[in-house]
Amino acid sequence: VHLYEEVARKIERVIRAGTFRPGDRLPSVRQATAQHGISATTAVQAYLMLENEGLIEARPKSGFFVRARWHDRLPEPRVSRPTRAVTAVTVGALQSRLFDGGRLPGVVPFGGAAPGPELLPIAKLSRIMASVSRSAGGRGLAYDMPPGSETLRRAIARRALEAGAELAPEDIITTCGATEALLLCLRAVTSRGDVVAVESPAYFGVLHLLEELGLKAAEIPTHARDGFDLDALERALCGGRIAACVAVPNFANPLGSLMPQENKRRLVEMLAAREVPLIEDDIFGELHFDPERPRVARAFDRKGLVLLCSSFSKTLAPGYRVGWVAAGERYHQRVRTLKLASSLATPTLPQLAIAEFVTNGGYDHYLRGVRQTYERQIACVSEAVTEAFPAGCKITRPRGGFVLWVELPEDVDALRLDDMAMAEKISIAPGPLFSAKLGFRNFIRLSCGHPWTPRAESAIGVLGRLVKKLA
Ligand SMILES: Cc1ncc(COP(=O)(O)O)c(C=O)c1O
């Protein structure tokens, strides 16, 4: 027996004993070297052996992790196959149903993708709000005309550096959530009847905007792990009808997919070659589980064609309605004018409170904690789904954000499941919400933004029984 095999078996015993659980990071190669008194080469060989055996997995630049059990039992959904036809969108009515359901008292909240209030820094943010409100005096009650709070825009510009985007405070316009940012961008770069390329599945809010603006969707096949199938997007672009593209490259909703950096570069170049603007939604970008903050596609923009949108809704306070857009040289003025027409100004005090929290309130410390929490909650829900749902289901493995996308057996109708779940006081987001023409009938999105509790666990059990009944 080689030394590395002995070490591998030792590590395996430690894992089987539960010292490291599914999803946990194992000691680094350097630590393993010291712990077992072996060379770095032997430590790497031991880890590679365990990886080959499927017990652990390597993640680039992060180290080795215990593979979650569900990884072996429930596969990942495959690349989507939306219709090739360009379609008018109809999701508005379904969306109201989701939000109405989520509002009922006592409902187990796997539906809406909002962070659980228990995880938000309520006390600190409230104190900051009171203090900025006092010190702003009358200014706090006045309009804060576009481009919006300068302290907030400076804070956003500093954070954008970490995502590879060089933004100046004057490049940014604050908005009422990412929703308004996306609306302004779509209005700036399209006109009624135009075709917009979107992910498939896509965030229903974007689909709803297309519907209301009279735009058509070209749904592009999308990988559960890597985002857009770029060859498919290229084929769609060749048709020459695409006026704009909307993408969530970092932890898409509902797929949780993360476009590899090279794909982001190719995406930007491919669109730029045809002068097609990219509206990039980076709302989940700060909620990464691996150490490195993923870059935004905007980092690769050379032509001023990437309009970058985001907000603080997934990280701090969805109800403050504070978002922003950096539309780039070409569209900045247009977006600023449209902002006046859309809502005149972004609420003043919420901007000041968020600026203060982000600059001096320990935002980074808070984010570090909450990223771990979401990773854990995703692991708990995934494991419970694996236990409770029938064979033939598939589930994503997001490395950021807090939503899971679950494929159910083909004959299960997610809208019926949604009705039955609602009767049991469980909210979910049925798959048809995420397609222009009510596709994904046998898919659901489960939001893991709320704390994992015994009640949540038994709700997954109930969902599993309902799925089996419908299958
Ligand atoms: C991908 C994505 N973009 C935008 C939004 C809306 O963000 P906001 O609440 O800031 O308007 C959401 C909210 O669910 C989302 O998931």
Structure summarized in a few sentences:
The chain is an alpha/beta fold. It has 16 helices and 17 strands.
Q: Any descriptors?
A:
single chain; 471 residues; alpha/beta; nine-stranded mixed β-sheet; 17 strands; globular; binds pyridoxal-5'-phosphate
Word description of this protein:
- By secondary structure, this protein is of the alpha/beta class.
- Helix content is 44%, strand content 15%.
- The protein has helices at residues 3-16, 29-36, 40-52, 69-73, 92-103, 122-136, 150-162, 177-189, 204-213, 230-238, 261-273, 328-343, 348-360, 363-388, 414-423, 454-470; strands spanning 56-59, 63-66, 87-88, 108-109, 173-176, 195-200, 216-223, 227-228, 242-247, 278-281, 306-311, 322-326, 394-395, 403-407, 426-427, 429-430, 443-447.
- Strands 3, 5, 6, 7, 8, 9, 10, 11 and 12 form a nine-stranded mixed sheet that branches. Strands 13-14-17-16 form a four-stranded antiparallel sheet. A two-stranded antiparallel sheet has the order 1-2.
- Strand 13 (394-395) and strand 14 form a beta hairpin.
- Helix 8 (177-189) crosses helix 12 (328-343).
- The chain is globular, with a radius of gyration of 23 Å.
- It starts with a helix and ends with a helix.
- The relative contact order is 0.15.
- The structure holds pyridoxal-5'-phosphate (PLP).
